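Hi all, posting the design record for the shared folder.

TITLE: backbone redesign
STEP: 1 of 1
STRUCTURE INPUT:
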């Protein structure tokens, strides 16, 4: 795959040091680490390896990835491996996509309390779906779901929301029957929205009472419990945005969707248009426009672009992909096996990949194809951080 003409790393390398000096004392350790990781990703700073073609001897130097989950260059391979693990979780049923979005008033609180409020977003949204689905008036079953947190809008603004993928049905209370949703319909959105609003606001008040929320700047006055309660009061009467999209066209469509969404970062390199010391231009979608002419180009001051990107750095150790219900870790395998039996599905395929290596003995395949002759490339040298590769012939060439 060819390298994009412009990358977030290029912007950080060129303008990051000056921006960090200008904003010293206002950046978290996590944000500084993300900037450093992106700047050094796939450079000699992180070391790398040399691969050589087994046919013509052509050599290629590859530098190591930073593997930071916020790096636009590192998420492709990570998403692929994650998706391979999820293939066995798919069921031969209809799948639904539900999106829970926090109001702008709550989003401001979330920005200052990411770990607590994002965690509450996960818990309130999943509990909402589990509760309503378990109600005999709606489905009367225990469902399972995969939730993915996104904190950004297309323009890099702070817009926290969670995407949830749900199989269209669940296990009966006795666990001996599969109860399917009505074709094309999961749960009533209005009921879902109202319960989500109540559960989230109750959870937010509980966080406030327990002292787990911090406020500063324009929100500093919310440290008072009474003021905080009054601040939330209008939100109890407004409609919260819960969007249920049309069902997917089968498990394969679910897999394709997840491969695009699970490991997204705030902005991929492919959306960047240009950058200099003054401005960064990038493509974005204006979802307020109802027709197809949503694609626009936004131009931000370079410092503002960096600030917006770093707004979406997650707290260390925070899990942005979670599984709930019968897809929860620890019970997923047993529950899926039961469901497949109930659906009279075929037994799960054995998907363990064999470790088939080619090339000379003691040489590791690089997974690359020689651009000169199409031969297999194998690793002939590795080098550590800060080192440079040594020019040498492949061992099979020397032996000849």
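Okay, here is what came back for every position:
SEQUENCE:
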């Amino acid at each position: 795959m060819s390298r994009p003409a412009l990358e977030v790393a290029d912007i950080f390398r060129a303008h990051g040091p000056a921006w960090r000096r200008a904003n010293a004392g206002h950046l978290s350790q996590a944000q500084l680490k993300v900037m450093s990781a992106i700047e050094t990703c796939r450079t000699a700073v992180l070391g790398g390896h040399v691969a050589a073609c087994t046919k013509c001897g052509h050599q290629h130097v590859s530098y190591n990835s930073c593997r930071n989950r916020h790096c636009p260059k590192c998420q492709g391979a990570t998403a692929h491996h994650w998706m391979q693990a999820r293939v066995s979780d798919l069921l031969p049923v209809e799948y639904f996509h539900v999106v829970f979005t926090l109001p702008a008033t709550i989003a401001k609180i979330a920005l200052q309390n990411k770990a607590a409020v994002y965690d509450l977003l996960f818990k309130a949204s999943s509990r909402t779906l589990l509760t309503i689905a378990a109600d005999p008036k709606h489905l009367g079953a225990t469902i399972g779901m995969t939730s993915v947190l996104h904190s950004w809008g297309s323009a890099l603004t702070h817009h926290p929301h969670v995407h949830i993928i749900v199989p269209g049905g669940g296990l009966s209370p006795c666990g001996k029957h599969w109860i399917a949703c009505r074709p094309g319909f999961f749960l009533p959105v209005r009921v879902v929205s109202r319960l989500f609003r109540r559960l989230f606001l109750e959870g937010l008040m509980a966080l406030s009472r327990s002292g787990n929320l911090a406020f500063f700047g324009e929100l500093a006055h919310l440290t008072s419990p009474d003021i905080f309660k009054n601040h939330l009061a209008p939100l109890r009467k407004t409609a919260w945005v819960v969007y249920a999209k049309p069902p997917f066209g089968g498990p394969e469509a679910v897999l394709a969707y997840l491969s695009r969404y699970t490991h997204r970062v705030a902005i991929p390199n492919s959306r960047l248009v240009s950058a200099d010391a003054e401005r960064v231009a990038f493509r974005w979608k204006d979802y307020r426009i109802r027709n197809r002419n949503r694609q626009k180009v936004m131009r931000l001051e370079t410092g503002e672009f960096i600030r917006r990107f770093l707004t979406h750095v997650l707290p260390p150790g925070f899990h942005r992909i979670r599984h709930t219900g019968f897809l929860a870790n620890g019970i997923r395998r047993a529950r899926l096996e039961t469901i497949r039996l109930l659906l009279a599905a075929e037994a799960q395929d054995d998907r363990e990949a064999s470790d088939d290596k080619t090339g000379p003995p003691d040489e590791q395949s690089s997974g690359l194809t020689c651009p000169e002759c199409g031969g297999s490339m194998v690793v002939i040298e590795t080098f550590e951080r800060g080192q440079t590769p040594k020019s040498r012939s492949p061992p099979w060439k020397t032996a000849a």
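COMMENT: Residues 345-363 have pLDDT under 50 and may be disordered.
Let me know if anyone wants the other runs.
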